[in-house]
Amino acid sequence: MTTPVTIIGAGLGGLTLARVLHVNGIPATVYEAEPSAAARTQGGQLDLHEHNGQVALAAAGLTGQFRAIIHEGGQATRILDSRGTALLEEPDDGTGGRPEVLRGDLRRILLDSLPGETVQWGRKVTGVRPLGDGRHEVTFTDGPAVTASILAGAPDGDHEGTAQ
């Protein structure tokens, strides 16, 4: 089986790439080692800066959905010493430059924005072999290998083994 764009890893980066490609009419398949989207919790909050993460979500056409799930006031900063005395307090400036969002909520938005067959769950990569002409063969612990015309690795930094 040959896939035009093969993405290894259904973390935020891999899903964002798949969504941007989808919006631009380019089919992609994401292969993920986890058995399902609910296999593990997605960690805590992260902030998405206006110069990179928010640009990617805009390219994915998901700015509105993202704005609906941000944590108001999440840009505030407080640094405490070991006794709990505030060393620095900066309130949320209200600019939206780096709003906080729960990883799981953002992943849900990305997954919901993709056609159902885009993510192939339970497909742990065991090897990648160049075939020439820019193509690669991707093998898995089970199931058939695929030939990728374009291959992107997008491992999730929070989980060893999501994509290798």
* Shape type: elongated
The order of strands across the largest sheet is: 7-2-1-10-9-8
Mean pLDDT: 83
The largest pleated sheet is described as:
6 strands, mixed
Q: What amount of the residues lies in strands? A: 25-35%
The secondary-structure element order is: EHEEHHEEEHEEEE
Please give the oligomerization state of what you see. Answer: single chain
**Helical segment count:** 4
Work out the helicity level: 10-25%
Work out the radius of gyration. Answer: 18 Å
Q: Uncertain runs with pLDDT below 50, 5 residues or more?
A: 159-164
Strand tally: 10
Termini distance? 21 Å
> Could you say which structural class the secondary elements and strand pairing correspond to?
alpha/beta
Description:
With 164 residues, the chain is an alpha/beta fold. It is 21% helix and 30% strand. The chain has a 6-stranded mixed sheet with strand order 7-2-1-10-9-8, with helices on one face. The chain has a two-stranded antiparallel sheet with strand order 3-6. The chain has a two-stranded antiparallel sheet with strand order 4-5. A hairpin with a 5-residue loop joins strand 4 and strand 5. The longest helix has 12 residues, at 12-23.
